[in-house]
């Protein structure tokens, strides 16, 4: 079916991104996987290309676009080639909306120009070793001391945490109340060069190996009060505000991964010969690919509707939860079936389907586990 979600500007951008990936990413991607992240100057190349500034207002050096669909184009083109841009999804889709929505004028003028150029990479630190999805239970604290906060605690699973220059740390600035466990949380923008700020282990993951993920610790880190993002004590409210876009971004990546898996599998079975016949000629192969293509089409329709709703400011948390839940489950089924069609070669890392398989597992965990999403959806249903 013809897709109508993208316009001519989106498609022109797609061609630029496609050429960039083929020239700057595909040839060196295996080396990135070995290193655990792209080289630092790659982010400057993305800055020069304008990737980081698409939705930044023009007065801060950006393009002033408001459509999420440019980010979707990048996800689709990366999936098409079986690669990714390291931790840039967090930099653009997670951190930037907080800076734009809650940053002061002074903060935007200070941080957005280097954000756009890639000179300053960012991360956001929410999850703690003992809390997981229960953000209200976090133990990291920030105590006011004159014109600084004194930050103490630890975080884990922080995407982009190894190379980040500025980290948005969620900490408890006042105790929770009996009526509201979520009260008292604030977001501090912490310079990673600060004394007492430490990057611990670079975590070794089964997938997304070019996206650096780290443990962080804070020991009496002094953070200037002017680095408080938004108002003190409203951190959980701010986090909830951006969850819809975060989950939509994951849904797009998941749909794009499933679509790419079908393309990779289709090409493989046409070329692969077994028992004197192409694998594509077997009825089972045809039926599996037909099932996968149908599921991908359904996921695409849901993603496109959600992107349109998001651009109109109408994407609800429940609708974003439904989109992520469905697309990540489709991704899991489709990528697994497409790997099976590759036979033993599907288990070999030089084939992109193997990378899609290991990368896919985390999408049902981060950005809200499937179980958390079902709770949100059930709440919307009144049960």
UniProtKB/TrEMBL annotation:
PROSITE patterns: ACYL_COA_DH_2 (PS00073). Belongs to the acyl-CoA dehydrogenase family. This is Acyl-[acyl-carrier-protein] dehydrogenase MbtN. Catalyzes the dehydrogenation at the alpha-beta position of ACP-bound acyl chains. This results in the introduction of a double bond in the lipidic chain, which is further transferred to the epsilon-amino group of lysine residue in the mycobactin core by MbtK. Keywords: FAD, Flavoprotein, Oxidoreductase. InterPro entries: Acyl-CoA_dehydrogenase, Acyl-CoA_DH_CS, Acyl-CoA_Oxase/DH_mid-dom, Acyl-CoA_Oxase/DH_mid-dom_sf, AcylCo_DH-like_C, AcylCo_DH/oxidase_C, AcylCoA_DH/ox_N, AcylCoA_DH/ox_N_sf. Residues 123-221 form the Acyl-CoA oxidase/dehydrogenase middle domain. It comes from Actinomadura fulvescens. Its cofactor is FAD. It comes from the Bacteria. Residues 233-381 form the Acyl-CoA dehydrogenase/oxidase C-terminal domain. Pathway: Siderophore biosynthesis; mycobactin biosynthesis. Residues 7-119 form the Acyl-CoA dehydrogenase/oxidase N-terminal domain.
């Amino acid at each position: 079916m013809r897709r109508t979600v993208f316009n001519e500007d989106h498609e022109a951008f797609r061609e630029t991104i496609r050429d960039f990936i083929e020239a700057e990413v595909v040839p060196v991607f295996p080396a990135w996987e070995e290193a655990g992240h792209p080289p630092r100057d790659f982010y400057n190349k993305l800055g020069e290309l304008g990737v980081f500034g698409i939705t930044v207002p023009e007065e801060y050096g950006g393009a002033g676009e408001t459509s999420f669909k440019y980010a979707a184009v990048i996800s689709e083109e990366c999936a098409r080639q079986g690669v990714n841009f390291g931790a840039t999804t967090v930099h653009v889709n997670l951190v930037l909306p907080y800076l734009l929505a809650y940053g002061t004028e002074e903060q935007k003028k200070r941080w957005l120009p280097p954000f756009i150029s890639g000179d300053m990479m960012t991360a956001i630190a929410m999850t703690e070793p003992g809390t997981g999805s229960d953000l209200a239970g976090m133990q990291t604290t920030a105590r006011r001391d004159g014109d600084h906060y004194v930050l103490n605690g630890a975080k884990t699973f922080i995407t982009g945490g190894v190379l980040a220059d500025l980290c948005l740390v969620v900490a408890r600035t006042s105790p929770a109340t009996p009526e509201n466990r979520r009260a008292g949380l604030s977001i501090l923008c912490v310079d990673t060069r600060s004394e007492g700020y430490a990057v611990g282990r670079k975590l070794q993951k089964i997938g997304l190996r070019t996206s650096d993920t780290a443990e962080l610790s804070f020991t009496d880190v002094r953070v200037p009060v002017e680095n408080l993002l938004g108002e003190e004590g409203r951190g959980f409210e701010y986090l909830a505000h951006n969850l819809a876009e975060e989950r939509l971004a994951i849904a797009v990546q998941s749909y794009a991964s499933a679509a790419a898996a079908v393309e990779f599998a289709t090409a493989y079975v046409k070329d692969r010969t077994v028992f004197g016949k192409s694998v594509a000629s077997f009825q089972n192969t045809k039926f599996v690919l037909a099932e996968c293509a149908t599921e991908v089409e359904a996921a695409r329709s849901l993603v496109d509707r959600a992107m349109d709703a998001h651009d109109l400011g109408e994407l609800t948390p429940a609708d974003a939860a439904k989109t992520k839940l469905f697309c990540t489950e489709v991704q899991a089924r489709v990528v697994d079936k497409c790997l099976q069609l590759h036979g033993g070669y599907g288990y070999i890392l030089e084939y992109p389907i193997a990378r899609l398989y290991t990368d896919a597992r985390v999408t049902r965990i981060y950005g809200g586990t499937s179980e958390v999403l079902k709770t949100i959806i059930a709440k919307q249903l009144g049960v």
